[in-house]
Amino acid sequence: MQQILRTPDPGVRAALVTDHLQRLEDALDRTRAAVVSLRRLLQPDPAPIDVELRAEPARTVAAVEAVVGHDDIATWYAGAMAELEAAVGDAVTGPPGGSYDNALFEQERGHAVVYLPTAAPPRTGRVHPLTLPPAELAVTTHIGEHDGIEVTYGELGTWVVENAMSVAGPVREVYVVGPRDTSDPAAWRTEIGWPVFRVT
What we know:
This protein is an alpha+beta fold. 37% of the residues lie in helices and 30% in strands.
């Protein structure tokens, strides 16, 4: 604000005010999104979520893995995915995905994997072949930005408790449509797979 008041040039002053206004509007948008997420946590939508029980076979992918802190996951993911895309190139055979240990959510630090499916996973830098074990999963789709994904996790966790037997194991995500596919967050689709034990 002091810089705006000290600037004698009206054109520069207008540009500073515009920049400041944009920052305030961006902060307001983030606050509104947080309020919507918190309201959904307090008063969840009564409509049931769509859940599909899936048996995922074992498969080998190109992966980057590390033990990371919860606060560092977004930065780590961006770097790991860029490295994967550079290593795999056009040989990708499906959407990217991730696997995240429960400790990452419960203790704020845990093992994380991001991967790209490819017929011949390379070994270069941090990228290496990794075999994802077979898994029985309860799968739902989170629609839109990732800021509110914890609400979808909560809804899926409730469904698992009420309808299936949860087992220890990492949660899996598949980024069916994401920021690399479209800049429109409303079009993003993230599948969340919760490990379960099925008898039927």
